[in-house]
Amino acid sequence: MGFIKEVKADTARNHATRAREEGRGVFLYRFDVPSTSSGFSRPVSGAAEVIEAIERTGWRLQHVAYDGHQSKNGAALLLFR
């Protein structure tokens, strides 16, 4: 895994761990979608690593939504339970 992806995954894991330790039942995480140069379908860089890092803390992904207004390229809103 590249350095940037590793930092993003570590950050997500730290937030997820804290939420779990605080006794939360729901964890909502915003993942800013990286910029791309084309409109073709392809994997979203770093998204799988972030989801897997959060799920390793015990959360399970329940829903995904896209918010095109959060950043230049939009953001994925990931709801875990």
Describe the structure.
- By secondary structure, this protein is α+β, with helices and mostly antiparallel strands.
- The protein has one domain (3-34, 44-80).
- Helices cover 35% and strands 23% of the residues.
- It has two helices and three strands, in the order αβαββ.
- A three-stranded antiparallel β-sheet has the order 1-3-2.
- The longest helix is centred in the first third of the chain and has 19 residues, at 3-21.
- The chain is globular.
- The model has no long low-confidence stretch (mean pLDDT 88).
Gist?
It contains two helices and three strands.
Total strands: the figure is 3
- Average pLDDT over all residues: 88
Largest sheet: 3 strands, antiparallel
- Following the backbone from N to C, one meets helices and strands in this order, namely HEHEE
Strand content: 15-25%
Poorly predicted residue ranges: none
What are the defining features of this structure?
81 residues, alpha+beta, 3-stranded antiparallel beta sheet, 35% helix, globular
Give the topology.
Blueprint: H1 3-21, E1 27-32, H2 47-55, E2 61-67, E3 75-80
Antiparallel strand pairs: 1-3, 2-3
